[in-house]
Automatic annotation (TrEMBL):
Keywords: Membrane, Transmembrane, Transmembrane helix. This is DUF485 domain-containing protein. Residues 1-21 are annotated as: Disordered. It holds the Pfam family DUF485. The chain crosses the membrane at residues 41-63, 75-97. It comes from Rhodococcoides corynebacterioides. It comes from the Bacteria.
Length: 120
């Protein structure tokens, strides 16, 4: 069915991209910008989390007195920092989802639509 004969509200036909189409798209400025933007977010965020996690492990291994410092009741610094690891994981996930929804997904959808020959 061609778009000229399409029923109102019908989904337009998608074409199947060829391997050459994928190679050309991978070399396109739009794709390169998308990849640079994604890497510019993911790598620093991953490095931050790994450093934060390593610091926690090293403190647990070598700073026993500091980690055992009571904050209130039976809650010590080590427990609070351990719980902060979970909080940090959820916060980073939320930040990434917001970033992806705002920055990555619209550009990726545009690239996909261009490859498949469908309007956005």
């Amino acid at each position: 069915m061609t778009t000229a004969n399409a029923r109102p509200g019908a989904t337009p036909e998608r074409r199947t991209p060829t391997p050459q189409d994928f190679v050309e798209m991978q070399n396109s400025p739009e794709f390169q910008q998308l990849r640079k933007r994604l890497r510019g977010f993911v790598f620093p965020m991953a490095a931050f989390f790994l450093v934060w996690y390593l610091a926690y492990v090293l403190l647990g291994a070598y700073a026993h007195d500091f980690m055992a410092t009571k904050v209130f009741g039976n809650v010590n610094v080590g427990l609070l920092l351990g719980l902060a690891q979970f909080v940090t994981t959820f916060v980073i996930t939320g930040i990434y989802v917001r970033f992806a929804n705002r920055e990555i997904d619209p550009k990726a959808a545009a690239i996909r639509a261009e490859l498949e020959g469908t309007p956005q």
